[in-house]
Amino acid sequence: MLFRWKGRVFIGNNVSISPEVHLITASHDINSESFEYFEKSIKVDDFVWIGTRATILPGVNLKKGCVVASGSVVTKDVSSYDIVAGVPAKVIGKRNEKLNYNCKWFPPFD
User: Is-catalytic flag, 28?
Assistant: First the structure.
């Protein structure tokens, strides 16, 4: 059987994606009699920080500067500079909007 990468993920600049994060771009319609398959892209804007073991579901857009707490499951778009946490993820705060850093954690890969 031949497998291919499902869906697409778009990642901006200075994004921090922690270990064991799941970016899921495909699934099935749970109400479909035929278990209909679908793909939806994920978009991650500049300065987003995704914590360890967070899960981002199909079609989600993470807007500029938002933070996804570790272990969260993101089912809906997250607005700019919002901090979300939980299952499902909900807004728990706001992040400073004056961000000026470069993610250079792994120089060999930059």
Answer: yes
Dist CA 54 CA 19 (whole Å)? 9
Closest CA to 25 of 61, 50, 49: 61
Task: State the DSSP string of 63-109.
Answer: -TT-EE-TT-EE-S-B-TTEEEETTTTEEEEE--S-------S-GGG
Active-site annotation holder among 8, 28, 76, 90:
28
CB burial readout 32-71, b (16+ within 10 A) else e: eeeeeeeeeebbbbebbbbbeebbbbbbbbbbbbbbbbee
Tokens of 28: 């099935």
Taking the whole predicted model, whether its pTM rises above 0.85 is answered as yes
Q: pLDDT by residue (tens digit) across 46-56? A: 999 999 999 99
